[in-house]
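hi! just following up on the protien thing from before. the input was this:
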Amino acid sequence: MASRLLSPARFRQLFPALQSLVWLDTPGAPPGAEPVVQAVHDAISAWSSGEFDRHAWDAATGQARGLFARLIGVDPATVSTLGSLAEAAATVAGSLPPGRIVVAAEEFRSNLLPWLARPEHQVVMVPAHDGITRVEDLIEALDEGTVLLAVSEVTSREGQRPTSSSCAPTTPTGFRLGCAGSRSGRPRSATGSASASTTTTTTTTCRPHFAHSKARS
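and the predicted 3d structure came back as:
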C-alpha cells in the first residue's frame, strides 16, 4: 500500500494549473487533475459517439464506494453515496433518535441547516471564541442526551482541522460523531492574489459528502 502513496510533489504534478497557482481552497470547483480530466473526456467522447455504456457508468459508483471504504478501513456496506452534503446531513438527521445535536455556530450551513429543520432535535450551536471554534468547547457541550456531534473536517470559518481522536477520550458514550467536509479559504496564485472562491463537501458518524457513520458505545 505504501508504494502506491503519492508524495506531495507527485500529487501536485497531476494538476497542470498548480504550475502557476497555489490552491488553498476546498475542492468544490478546483483545478482539474489530469486523470480526472481524461476520464471526463473519455465519458463525453463515448456519449458523443453513441458508445456510452450505462452499465459501466452505474458500476463506477460501487467501485468508488469500495475504494473509499478501503481507504478509511470500513465495510463498503457502511458507505453511502449522495449528491451533496446537505442531502447527506438531512439523511442522517432523519435516521437519528430525538436528542441534542451539537454543532459549531460558525459551521458551514450545509452542516447546520439540515439539523435545524428537524423539530425532534435540540440543536446546540457552540460559539467561537476569539474567532476560533475550539474542540474543547464542542466537547464541553456534550452530555448524555447528545445523539450527534457534527463537525467539519476543516472548519468553515477559520480553516482549522478538528480531529475525532481529540474528542474521544473525554466524551460521553452513545452518541455519533459526524464529520463533514466544507468550504474554507480561497485559492491564491503563486504571487498571492486571490482567485475565485469554491465549495466542497464527508462523515464518519469530522464536502462532499457524508461517508459513513459510526456510533460509539
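Residues 168-173, 181-217 have pLDDT under 50 and may be disordered.
DSSP finds seven helices and six strands in the chain.
cheers
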